[in-house]
Amino acid sequence: MYIEVNGKQVFATTGGKPFDCARPVVVFLHGAGGDHTVWNLQSRFFAFRGYSVLAPDLPGHTNSAGPPLASIEAMADWLNDVLEALDCRNVSFVGHSMGCLVGLELGSHDPARLRSLSLIASGLATPVNDALLGAAKNNPDAAISMMTSWGFGAAGHYSRGPVPGNAMIAAGQMVMRGNTPDALHADLSACNNYANGAEAALLVKPHVQVIVADNDRMAPKKATDKLIAQLPNPEVAVIADCGHMVPQEAPNRCRKLLRDFIFKHNPATQGS
Amino acid sequence: MSRFLNFDTLSLHAGQVVDPEFGARAAPIYQTTSYVFPDTDTASSIFNLERGGHAYTRITNPTVGVLEQRIASLEGGSAAVCTSSGMAATFCAITAILGQGDHIVASTQMYGGNISLMKNTLPRFGITTTFFDPTDPDACRAAMQDNTKLIYGELIGNPGLDILDLEAIAGIGAEHHVPVMIDATFNTPYLCRCFDYGANMTVHSVTKWMGGHGVAIGGVVVDGGNFDWGATDKYPTITGPYAPFSGINLWEEFGPSAFATRIRAEAMRDIGPSMSPMNAFLLLQGIETLSLRMDRHMANTQELLDYLSNHEQVSWVNHPSLPSHSSHELAKKYLPKGAGSIVSFGVKGGRAAGKAFIEACELASHLANVGDAKTLIIHPATTTHSRIDAEALEAAGITEDMIRLSVGLEDVADIKADFDTGFRAAKRVAAS
């Protein structure tokens, strides 16, 4: 579905069902360089079980008009505007990687709207090394290779995903190439510059779930431990044998964790 | 993993999760029509495209899935769908995006089955084709119409072996926002990954070099994931609502694998040209040694090119590796490891001498296939292209004295000795 927010076109998939703000809403937000398709093995599930789903493309990503946003805080403001425009209440937020940082900001500033926060593969911050930042600016193809080679674990590298016929690394690369040319650099810079994670985490009020992958080299255990320590009573789950791209590498386990958590804290009977 | 796995490793491992029950190292043959669902929610999720999984082998099968994911990885595509044959792959790929009133621009130099499909069969469904000389990209551009929705060709043309200037053709496709589909059977992803040069999807007869042993018929469509279906309203089967799945918009839901998903959801379900699990297993065995076999195919081809070029009974030899071939420079660009193992040559003495050559050879098999481990020979004018009219035959570069050779993996000295026998017979006929 396309909507207009702040005079710009915004795309969000609704998981194959019409969006209805009267229902509880599950918002899925992608990570750096990604788009809504990261969530296609989760979003459709919720859409067909009584939820309204909103998996937007951030500005400058795939179907949403640019330019890309320059900071995590700006992304959180933008997402808040999207939720306002659609009159979303009873929101369960699900973020991946950079999307989690946006979720922390949203959760610390707008607790009334949020029923739950699910943070997948993230720490309190996402420092990005100079080589990757430089490549994202000057040689995006090289940066895309670096990110996908590091981001995906064995399931990606060996094309062992559960969707027959699909090769997730090539698909991920195609998504990144389809964004505006400066989107990846903007995303990575926003991640690198974000310093408010520890403070934001302390202010998060909704129920929080943290999903960690044990072979994640982009959000390693040391980083996720800091996030977990800072959040108020998070439910923590570790997915074994999985790299950073949890929603694609381990979609069934990821979906089950999200289902159990969101069904409990934001049941679909609410408001539907 | 800090870098990508290389081709040979993917050939052996991609797509396979080692059997968790018994630890079988080889991909098991799941010879079953259907699958027990653990619960109704899982069942409905699979049917509704909410999750991966298997419901019925016409649509997906675990053994076939290993092959699909292996080929997608080798090709660098976002997704692959295997079919019962290469022609089934081509038909399913075309009809996934074209329908009544649509138009294809296609190379004249293609396998006879492809030409017949476009010239005779698809017009009955309202899909027409304009053919262009693959050596002339401007001819491709000139053939484009308002209703053109696909450019189709073979990287290594059959049987003339002209190389399609893929980057130029892909550029024309991009200008018109029309996808480029390549039949990559002759090159395989080992010799050229067509997506690296701008193709948007490939089809293969995996019966040929990919399988390599002549024991199983199969095809595959690979989605390059690199075509922006959403940038135009020309492809409603991808970007419009699809009624059988609650009006799903495949482009919005599946992005880079939307095209492959359409084939899976429509062609495999409504038409049903599925690959058998047994064939998928046999083809997987072949793909494990694809690079080794292709290297040997290329080495034997080079030796035979030298032999044929210097043989007194040979009037001409045609292969893109030869400097005399009009596509030699394109072959160096797109096919640096070798320009395939199909060679065509003329036998002095014309049709009768060609017939004598074929019938005198003992080691080389006279049959209508290519890409086997064994050396194969055939006379196209009377077999593979026999249903094509004279004009199209000439356009395809086929002459009556032409022998098409598919170079096998035998000791090349034995192939030469066999051909010596054939040429002696041809010489006797030519002299009589």
Walk me through the topology.
The complex is a heterodimer of chains A (272) and B (432).
Chain A: E1 2-5, E2 8-13, E3 25-29, H1 43-47, E4 52-56, H2 72-85, E5 91-96, H3 98-109, E6 114-120, H4 130-138, H5 140-151, H6 154-157, H7 168-178, H8 183-193, H9 197-203, E7 207-213, H10 221-230, E8 235-239, H11 246-249, H12 251-265
Parallel strand pairs in A: 3-4, 3-5, 5-6, 6-7, 7-8
Antiparallel strand pairs in A: 1-2, 2-4
Helix pairs in contact in A: 2-3, 3-9, 4-5, 4-8, 5-7
Chain B: H1 7-13, H2 40-47, H3 62-75, E1 79-83, H4 86-95, E2 103-107, H5 112-121, E3 128-132, H6 137-143, E4 148-154, H7 166-176, E5 180-183, H8 188-191, E6 201-205, E7 219-223, H9 236-239, E8 241-242, E9 248-249, H10 250-254, H11 258-271, H12 277-288, H13 290-309, E10 314-318, H14 328-334, E11 342-347, H15 350-360, E12 365-366, E13 376-378, H16 390-395, E14 402-406, H17 412-431
Parallel strand pairs in B: 2-3, 2-4, 4-5, 5-6, 12-13
Antiparallel strand pairs in B: 1-7, 6-7, 8-9, 10-11, 11-14, 13-14
Helix pairs in contact in B: 1-3, 3-12, 15-17
Structural description of this entry:
The complex is a heterodimer of chains A (272) and B (432). With 272 residues, chain A is of the alpha/beta class. Chain A has one domain (2-265): 3-Layer(aba) Sandwich (Rossmann fold). Chain A contains twelve helices and eight strands. An eight-stranded mixed β-sheet of chain A has the order 1-2-4-3-5-6-7-8, sandwiched between helices. In chain A, helix 1 links the parallel strand 3 (25-29) and strand 4 (52-56). In chain A, helix 2 crosses helix 3 (98-109), helix 3 packs across helix 9 and helix 5 packs antiparallel against helix 7 (168-178). The longest helix of chain A has 15 residues, at 251-265. Chain A is globular and about 45 Å long. The mean pLDDT of chain A is 95. With 432 residues, chain B is an alpha/beta fold. Chain B folds into two domains: 7-97 and 179-286, Type I PLP-dependent aspartate aminotransferase-like (Major domain) (Aspartate Aminotransferase, domain 2, 3-Layer(aba) Sandwich); 291-431, Aspartate Aminotransferase, domain 1 (Alpha-Beta Complex). Chain B is 39% helix and 14% strand. A seven-stranded mixed β-sheet of chain B has the order 1-7-6-5-4-2-3, sandwiched between helices. A five-stranded mixed β-sheet of chain B has the order 10-11-14-13-12. In chain B, strand 2 (103-107), helix 5 (112-121) and strand 3 (128-132) form a beta-alpha-beta unit. In chain B, helix 15 crosses helix 17 (412-431). The model of chain B has no long low-confidence stretch (mean pLDDT 95). The chains are: A alpha/beta (272), B alpha/beta (432).
